[in-house]
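User: My instructor asked us to take a sequence, write out its structure as tokens, and then describe one feature of it. I'm not sure where to start. Here is the sequence I was given:
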Amino acid sequence: AKFKPRKEAKGEYVPKGVKVGRCFEDFMLFIEDNPTTNYVEMDTVIGRTGGKVIMTFQFVNVDFMFGILLENKTAAETAQKIRELKEKLNASDICFGDVFPALLTDNGGEFSDVSAFENSSDGERETRMFFCDPNAPYQKPHVENNHTLFRGIAASGTSFDDWSQDTVNLIFSHINAVKRKQFNGKSAFDLFTFTYSIELANLLGIHYVAPKDVIQTPKLLKLFS
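Assistant: Let's start with the prediction itself. The structure tokens for your sequence are:
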């Protein structure tokens, strides 16, 4: 897939000092040294300008995606939601670093609190975080491609301000239920639950949707209207 170069973004960005040892070149070297590592791509989907946004996670190995609703696009909000996710996983004896051994994202300022992502509550590093080169969305194509499925349900410009986390979970549950040709008719949900567990999928807010019930249009949002 090809993506048009993005216009230079204004506002918060990841300081250069934070990216030392975490640039895309470092990511490629990390993957070369750890070829079996299943990394996760991250991004942010924008709703109304200045309103709620969605932080998305794409498991590259199984094409599985989930999202976390953020009140705003700030590093503080993102860090808080990540800490809450880690606490939820820990309560089920699941280590964040085991599920997310490596993270790849862009240069949005909401991702600048690296310690919240990389370190455990004890301050020990449990995962590795890397950043794409500026204006290079093609370096994380999997999450970019899956966003097209999301936009088939919630078109660009749709406000998320009235949404809850349940809305986000429903959308991505339907997206993960789509049967994929590259997986011989299996869905991302099928592969994720086989590779990890249905318990983990549910903890991430994703639940089974029968093939006959999958909705990939804005009609899905009417369930919350």
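For the description part of your assignment, you could build on this observation: DSSP finds eight helices and five strands in the chain. Try explaining in your own words what that tells you about the chain.
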